């Protein structure tokens, strides 16, 4: 399964996931508390430096991940130029880019499995309340496994459609996709029960 | 227990797949994916609680770093970006849609699912989405609302499709439609 974790090794990869997440939280709160243009420029420079440390290809990947934000940056800047408040627009746009880029940096340098472990660790206090957290970890694994399977089945359904119709597959394929998903879910549940289910843990 | 967890997991996967597969652009240039329909379906098919859990599971995977949001977005960045409000609204929209379908037990499923999908997927979802935008972009509620209105017609269509799908699923696999189980 494709994840957003970068293939390029960086000095940030060995840092523990929990520590990176804690730092990210603190930095994001800080960004939203600071309001001056100078602070925002400095924050962006710092984030850019963090991206440039592992090299330019890594920084380029980071820029690509930021793409969905550009349209909002453009909208905000245009709005504030029109209302003659360019300075405030710059602060908002810079804050947004720094916050999103920083969060993406953590995603790019942390393995998916390590993230899952942090989540399970964060959920562990629930166990003392009598809530079982094992099924949550299991559900995460199930989804990760099921997405490519379902995607492959959806693609083959769409191909079958194309083979028979001159038009593109439309929303009508959603029903067979959902049916395939539900049937697989029932099979998996049956297999799980046959193996003792969650009671064996 | 096993059955509920697998159905929840499978619907989480379904949201992801619907965000990736049929993608088209409206005449107004607004991209439309079936992802929103996946959220509505979670509620109308699985019911309030399980539907919301399926959406939360999907969001957890996005946060953990899988590019599952429509357009291949994902990671922690989207949770501080301008669309964060919609992400917060996702599970609540599914919950409301499911709650309505469960409540309207005596109404034909097509009507109940459509009402649930519309109320959950439009007013509920957009209130959160607009609040999120007004916070991250530092705009008033009205200004942010202006930004997202072009998406509403598409969502009405999705609610109609979600209702039709729920009704077909109830016919084809009655035992799996937990909101009417």
Describe this structure in words.
The complex is a heterodimer of chains A (about 200) and B (about 180). Chain A is mostly helical. Chain A folds into 2 domains: about 15-110, no CATH class; about 120-195, no CATH class. Chain A has helices at about 15-35, 35-50, 55-65, 65-80, 85-110, 110-125, 125-130, 135-165, 175-195. Chain A is extended. The two termini of chain A are about 25 Å apart. Chain B has a two-stranded antiparallel sheet. Helix content of chain B is about 70%, strand content about 5%. Chain B is built from 7 helices and 2 strands; from the N terminus they run H-E-E-H-H-H-H-H-H. Chain B has a single domain (about 1-25, about 30-175), classed as Orthogonal Bundle (Arp2/3 complex 21 kDa subunit ARPC3). By secondary structure, chain B is mainly alpha-helical. Chain B is globular and about 45 Å long. Chain B has helices at about 1-20, 35-45, 50-65, 85-105, 110-135, 140-150, 150-170, and strands at about 25, 30-35. At the A-B interface, helix 4, helix 5, helix 6, helix 8 and helix 9 of A face helix 1, helix 3 and helix 7 of B.
């Amino acid at each position: 399964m494709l994840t957003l974790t970068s293939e390029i090794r960086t000095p940030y990869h060995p840092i523990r996931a929990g520590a990176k997440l804690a730092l990210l939280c603190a930095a994001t709160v800080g960004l939203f508390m600071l309001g001056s243009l100078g602070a925002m420029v400095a924050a962006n420079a710092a984030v850019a430096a963090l991206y440039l440390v592992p090299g330019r290809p890594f920084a380029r990947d980071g820029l690509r991940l930021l793409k969905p934000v550009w349209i909002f940056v453009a909208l905000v800047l245009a709005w504030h130029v029109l209302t003659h408040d360019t300075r405030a627009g710059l602060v908002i746009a810079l804050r947004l880019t720094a916050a999103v880029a920083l969060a993406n940096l953590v995603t790019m340098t942390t393995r998916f499995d390590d993230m899952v472990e942090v989540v399970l660790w964060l959920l562990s206090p629930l166990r003392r309340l009598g809530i079982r957290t094992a099924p949550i970890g299991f559900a995460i694994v199930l989804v990760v496994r099921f997405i490519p399977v379902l995607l492959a089945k959806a693609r083959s359904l769409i191909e079958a459609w194309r083979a028979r119709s001159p038009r593109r597959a439309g929303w009508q394929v959603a029903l067979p996709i959902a049916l395939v998903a539900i049937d697989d879910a029932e099979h998996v549940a049956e297999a799980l029960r046959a193996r003792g289910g969650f009671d064996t843990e | 227990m096993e059955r509920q967890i697998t159905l929840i997991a499978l619907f989480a996967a379904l949201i992801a797949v619907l965000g990736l597969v049929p993608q088209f652009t409206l005449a107004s240039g607004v991209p439309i994916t079936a992802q929103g329909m996946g959220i509505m379906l979670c509620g109308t098919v699985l019911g309030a609680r399980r539907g919301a859990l399926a959406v939360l599971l999907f969001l957890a995977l996005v946060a953990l770093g899988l590019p599952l949001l429509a357009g291949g977005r994902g990671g922690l960045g989207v949770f501080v970006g301008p669309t964060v409000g919609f992400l917060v609204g996702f599970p609540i929209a599914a919950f409301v849609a499911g709650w309505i379908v469960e409540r309207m037990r005596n109404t034909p499923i097509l009507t109940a699912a459509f009402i649930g999908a519309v109320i959950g997927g439009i007013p509920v979802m957009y209130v959160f989405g607009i609040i999120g935008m007004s916070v991250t972009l530092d705009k008033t509620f009205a200004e942010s609302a202006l930004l997202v209105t072009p998406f509403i017609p598409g969502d009405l269509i999705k609610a109609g499709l979600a209702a039709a799908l729920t009704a077909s699923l109830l016919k084809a696999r009655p035992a799996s439609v937990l909101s009417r189980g």
